[in-house]
Request: fold
Amino acid sequence: MSDSTPHGRRRGPVTGRGVGRRRTGRSLGAPAAPPASSALSAGQNTGGGRGDAGRQAAEGSAPRTPEEAEYARAKEILLRQLTAAARSRAQLAQKLAEKEISEETATRILDRYEDLGLIDDAEYAAMYVRSRSASRKLARPALRRELAQKGIDPETAQRALSQRTEEDEREDARALVRRRLRPERDLADPAQREKALRRLVAMLARRGYAPGMAFEIVRTVMAEHGETGLEEPPGLV
Reply:
């Protein structure tokens, strides 16, 4: 359908093209691009803000008092120690004292690490007993002495030692004597036999076995090689 203009000219059909546009041809909804100077300024402000925030965060996390600085140093010491190996609380306290950490700060951070489970004397003692029993075949008296040297209290030590029985110790001692006995040399004649007997009993005694039990175990192992009727020499250990 065509209409006539007031001047008599005919215009073409209405197609909708150009509706909603400004005469400049730019869409009404399209935002104008900011000037280049404004964009640069905004970028500088944004970047500067992030830098300031980062510096403020770093400054906020840094120790600001002597007490905080000492606590941070104590934390580094403990982390190094615990990364190297498991330690008892007493061992860690001794290390902090050697590094001149105050008793107040040491107590505070050790308590905190206990709360977090990073220090656990009961678990440490149980692990220590298992490890030393397997590697050194130590009897409970020797293990108890070593735990005391590491600052484990008697009650905690006893709970850890309850993992071991007398039969466990006897079996470990027999295995150790079998490994150390040299039948072709130690049982060659009576003099060598007595010398070997004393040596092996003393070895077990150093590992915490009572002299009577140690002699009994050595005699049992020697009997496996045909040596019977052995008597305990005087002044054996």
The mean pLDDT is 80. Residues 165-229 form one domain. The CA atoms of residues 74 and 100 lie 9 Å apart. The longest strand covers residues 3-4.
